[in-house]
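Request: Have a read of the protein record below and say how the chain folds.
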Amino acid sequence: MSLLKSKIHIKNIPLYQGGESKLDQFSSVIKLSSNENPFGPSSSAINAYNEVKTKLHLYPDGSASALKEALAEIYQVPKGRIICGAGSDEILCLACRAYSGANDEIIHTKHAFSMYSIYAKSVGAVPVIAQEKNLTADIELILKCVSKKTKIVFLANPNNPTGTVLNRKDIVDLREALREDILLVLDGAYSEYMSQEDHDGALSLASKYENVLVTRTLSKIYGLAALRVGWGYGDISIIETLEKLRNPFNLNSPAIIAAREAVRDIGYTKYLREHNSKMIKEFVPKFRSLGLEINGGAANFILAKFPKNENKSADQADDFLRSSGIIVRRVDSYGLSDYLRITVGTKPQMNELYLKLKQFFEGNNVKDYI
């Protein structure tokens, strides 16, 4: 027997489970399980990626300067207050390492991204769950969870998997009510799907407050999930602290250059946002006509509630869709056993999904179609 023993708090950390992407009986599937961009990245990003392939023997720019410059230009923020990471996940983890530790408390809402709890546990901190109202974060309920041990509050806006959103005033009220020594981390992974006229993903709040960190990802609307690129924005004191913990060369050269071009292609980003909005407006009423309750719509996914019917449940629907070559996301692990999370896909994909769900609800028994 090995004498090696890991730290006690690591033993109870669950493995993160991503959305499925394959079904054994199908050579290709309609994958609507991981909130990916169904069209892929900008052609400019792909071209830039290909141009770097002859320089793979060289180390990347450790500071990701080219990407930071593009982000600063497009989002109108100071370059010196940006940190780039291997996905926004890395930055969330760095925040826990920098500002929390053994027996500290980190607050997140009941149906929040599961990595918040995992990263809290990874540094020995205690995840504290704030209850919600109608699947939506509630400021008063979050504040009730604050104790002397609280170091970080994680809040995703829009939230995954519920798709619910808080307005700017609510977030400001939360920040004003929290102690100054508590870091508020605002996860804006889906911010680019929101109307930019009334939503800046809390960048302005991070500009104003010294204890707010905003995180973003290029895995969603920018279509670079395979390259793992994210960024954070906050006060210079926060960024300098996180930079000390960041791994050297944490982003590879193809990722940096492709991300730079993806961010700069504002026309393509606008097209993707408009497509997403159009699909939401067209298909949410259709899904509701089948008897589904639909939450969300602010991001590139919806959360569909199925009836508590033995033959028409969420699990039965998922099995039926899988038998048809369509993969959506079960969210039982979030305590949402009556729901399925559905990524917004292309028009043909959404049509196929709707027709299969219609077939599912009109059939006398799901087994008729399996």
Observations:
- The domain at 41-264 is CATH 3.40.640.10 (Aspartate Aminotransferase; domain 2).
